Amino acid sequence: MKKVVICFLFLVEIIFVSAQVPPNYRFVKTWRIIDRFGVVDSIPVDTVPLNYQISNPIDRFSIANSYNGNLGSPIQSKLYFDRPASSDFIFTNAYYPYLININHATFYNTKTPLSNLDYNTGGSQYRDEDHVKFLFTANIKKNFNIGTTLDYTYAPGEYSNQATQRFSGSLFGSYQGKHYSATALFATNDLSNYENGGIVKSTDITFPIAGVLPIDIPTNITGYSNFKQNQIFYNQQYSIGFEKQIKTSKDSVKTEYVPVTRFAHTLKYDDVRKRYFEEQVVSTPFYVNTYLPFSFTNDSSAIQTLSNTFSVSMAEEFNKWMKFGLTAFIENEIQKYTFNKDSLVNSMFQSTTKVGGILSKQHGQRFTYKVLGELSFLGYKAGDFKLEGNVGGFFKLWKDTISLTANGFVRSDKPSYFLQQYQSNHFRWENDFASVYRTHLGGTFSIPTRSFSLNVSVENITQYIYFDTDALPAQFSGNIQVFAANLKQDFHVGKFALENNVVYQLSSHPGILPLPDFTLYHNLYYNDLWFKVLTIQLGVNLRYHTAYYAPTYMPATGQFYNQTTTKIGNYPALNAYINLHLKRTRFFVEYYHVNNLFMNGAYFSMPNYPIDPANVKLGVSWNFYD
Question: 22-31, 366-375, 442-451: lowest mean pLDDT where?
Answer without folding.
Answer: 22-31
